[in-house]
Write a structure and sequence with these properties.
Elements lengths: L1 H31 L10 H22 L7 H24 L5
């Protein structure tokens, strides 16, 4: 049972980071080609996905896509959120808090 929960936690983190990366990619595409855009990706959605565990995806996408590197909020907040997420995940895996 513990192994299943650990696997689900890893899958969740991978999925939310992939989602955050794709949000940044879509926001860049919409910013460079504004024709036909119905609804823009807001910074709030990106910050929310980073807060929910996708901060590494957002932070890596700034360098891979070469987009939003001048945003102080992303360049300062996302590494902080990565450190907090890593601390929570490592603490949870080592302490076994889901044992009951």
């Amino acid at each position: 049972m513990i192994l299943i929960i650990q696997i689900l936690a890893v899958v969740y983190l991978l999925a939310v980071n992939f989602y955050a990366f794709m949000l940044m990619r879509l926001q860049k595409e919409q910013a460079t080609n504004p024709n036909g855009v119905r609804r823009r990706i807001t910074d709030g959605r990106i910050l929310l996905s980073g807060t929910l565990g996708g901060a590494l995806g957002v932070y890596l996408s700034t360098f891979i896509l070469k987009y939003r590197r001048d945003s102080v909020l992303i360049m300062v907040l996302m590494p902080l959120l990565v450190a907090i997420t890593a601390f929570i995940v490592v603490s949870a895996f080592l302490s076994g808090f889901w044992l009951g």
